[in-house]
Amino acid sequence: MDIEFTYMKNLSKILPSASTTAMLALVLATGVSVTAVPAAADPPAWVATWGASPQPVWGAGFLFPSNVPSELHDQTVRQVARVSLGGQRLRIVLSNAYGGQPLAVGKATVARPRSDGAVAADSLRTVTFGGREEATILPGASLVSDPVALPIPALAQVAVSLYLPKATPVGTFHWDGRQTGWIVPGDQTTAPAFETAEGCARSTTTRLLLAGIQVEAEHAVRAVVVIGDSITDGAAASPDKDSRWPDFLAARLAPHGVAVVNAGISGARLLSDGMGVNALARLDRDVLAQPGVRSLVVMLGINDIAWPGTALAPERPRPTLQALTAGYRQLAEQARSRGLRVIGATLTPFEGALPGTPLDDYYHPDKDALRQRVNDWIRHGGAFDAVIDLDAALRDPVHPARIDAHFDSGDHLHPGDQGNRAMAEAVDLDVLLPGLGASRDNTTPNTSQER
Fold it and tell me: Where is the signal peptide (predicted)?
C-alpha cells in the first residue's frame, strides 16, 4: 500500500539511529511502498545589508559638535541609506543603545527616495513591530521590525521615516553619516514630500535611531563587516555620493551575492573608548549579531596611536606595540570562535595630518614609527586569516609616510573618493571569502595576502 512520507518520519522516531538505507531495507522486507514527498526548499535567509554603528552622544564640551538636537518631540526623522544587497522584503533595525529611558516610536515607513527628502508615493510602506505600528525601544536595546514587502535591487537607496510623538532625549546616534537626512514637525512619515513652513525643516548628516537594514534573500547569502574608524566611516567622502571605501567594495561584491556592512565610527579606537566604545565592547553588536556575517575586516589602530598628546587625549600615554597586538589578537580570536574569517588591514600613511586644525599635532615621527611596526606585525604576525595591505595601496611611492596626492582628501589623513575607490579595488575578493572566484582588475595592484 502507499503511505505519505510522514511514515518515514515516524519510523525514524521508532528507530532513531537507523540510516536511510536501513529503513529502506525494512520497507522492502515488509512489502510497503513509500510515496516520497520532495524535500522542502531552504527557507529564505535574512542578511544584514547596511549598518550605522551606534555611538553615545557626547556633551557640549567635546572638541567636535554633536550636530543633533538634545531632544526630539512630535517630529519626523527621514533618513536615506544605500543597501549593498537587495531583496523582496526588508527589515529595519532601530537602536536605543545609549539611551537612559524607553523610546517611543509612533509610526515608521520605508520608501524609495527622490530628491530633497521626497519619496515615491507608490513605494510607501508602513513598518510594523510585532504587528503594531507603535513600538517602544527599551534603554540599551535594539528593535527589529517585521518584514516589509518592498522589493529593492542591490545598491539601491531606501528612505526610512520615523515619527517620535513624545519628548525623546537623543542619547544614541551615528555622528558622521555622510548622507543628508531631515527632521520635520509632526507625523510626516507618509508624506511623499514634506509639508512644512519655510525654516521648519532641519537637515542633518547624523544618523538617528536607524542602525541597520536587513533584506530577505531566496537562499543563504553572506555578509562582510568592516570594523574601523573615520577612514572606514568615510570622513572625507563626498556627501550623498555613497563613496566610502566599503561602498565601493559593496559594488564589487554585490554581483557575487555578498553584502557589505560598514561598522566604521569616526574617532573609533581598538583599545579605548572615545567617539564610540572600544572595538571589543562593540564586537557583539556591530559584528557578531549581524545576520549572514561570514568575514570581518579589521582596520583600527591609527587613533590609538595618534590621539595621545593631542587635544583629544592630552594626558593619555601612547599604547605599546604589545598592547595593540594583544587587542588585535583578542578581537580576531573572539570573531573566529564564532566561525568568522578575520582579515587584518594595515594602517594607512598620515604624515602631516590635519594641518591648520586643533589636531595639527596628530602626526609625529615617533607615532609613525609605531604605525610601521604595527603594520609589520599585521603583515607577518599570523593573527589574521589574511591581510589587506591598504598602506601599500595608498602610500606615495616616493614618500611612503604620506598618502599619494591622487588619493588624499587634502587633510593628509583621510583618503578622498579616489582613494576610497583605490582601497576597495586593492582587495582580492577571494581573500575575503575563498571561493568567490572573482577575477582581479589587471590595472590594479593586488595588496591582499592569504595566510
Answer: 1-41
